[in-house]
Amino acid sequence: MFRDRLDAARQLADRLKNYRGKHPLILGIPRGAVGMAKVIADQLEGELDVVLVRKLRAPQQPELAIGSVDESGWTYLSEYAQAYGGTADYLATEKQAQMATLRQRRAQYTPIRPSISPSGRIVIVVDDGLATGATMISALHGLRAKKPAKLICAVPVAPPDTLATVAELADEVVCLDAPAFFRAVGQFYQHFEQVEDEEVTRILQQA
């Protein structure tokens, strides 16, 4: 059980300390993981940025990811997407909605500077936890195409089967806990408050 996201971030930074001084690029998945990425970037003397991806929500179950999409429009669909109502028409509409959110967030989060290129860098992608792993899959896929020197997934908690899937897309996976019984990421935090866009913008401006 983590006290909050910052507690989890400090523990992750300790596990990643071998990258201190190597100028890593720390990318947080908004919105919950951006504050965590800031802590890790500070501890490792790295740079902070965001990687923008969105989950594709199941019909009638918005908390369940049946896939994900990145800024380029590349789409990942889970093997159970159709079983949860992910028809072609539904997915096309849902993808459009999430792409609109991605464009809005890019305009809001980094209006004063372009995103930092991951090419040739040690890149550490941070999230506050993985359930299905859908958004992390899109993030890693998109970043791999930009040819980082090393691509690392860093999360406090995830189920073992999700970690195995994500491990195929990363050069290294750092996870503090992989419990067999996993219902939702929030169950592993004492405090798991919603993070708003304004907070993300403030963190990025400070960086």
Share of helix, binned: 25-40%
Overall pLDDT level:
96
List unreliable stretches of 5+ residues. none
Number of helices: 6
Sheet with most strands? 5 strands, parallel
Read across the widest sheet, the strand sequence of neighbours is 2-1-6-7-8
Task: Describe the protein in words.
The longest helix has 22 residues, at 88-109. With 207 residues, the protein is α/β, with parallel strands linked by helices. It has a 5-stranded parallel sheet, sandwiched between helices. Strands 3-4-5 form a 3-stranded antiparallel sheet. Helix 4 links the parallel strand 6 (122-126) and strand 7. It has helices spanning 5-15, 34-44, 88-109, 134-144, 160-167, 197-206, and strands at residues 25-28, 47-50, 53-58, 61-70, 75-77, 122-126, 150-157, 172-177. Helix 1 packs parallel to helix 2. 35% of the residues lie in helices and 22% in strands. It has 6 helices and 8 strands, in the order H-E-H-E-E-E-E-H-E-H-E-H-E-H. The radius of gyration is 16 Å and the shape is globular.
Please describe the structure with a list of short key phrases separated by commas or semicolons.
3-stranded antiparallel β-sheet; 5-stranded parallel β-sheet; single chain; 207 residues; 8 strands; 6 helices; alpha/beta; 35% helix
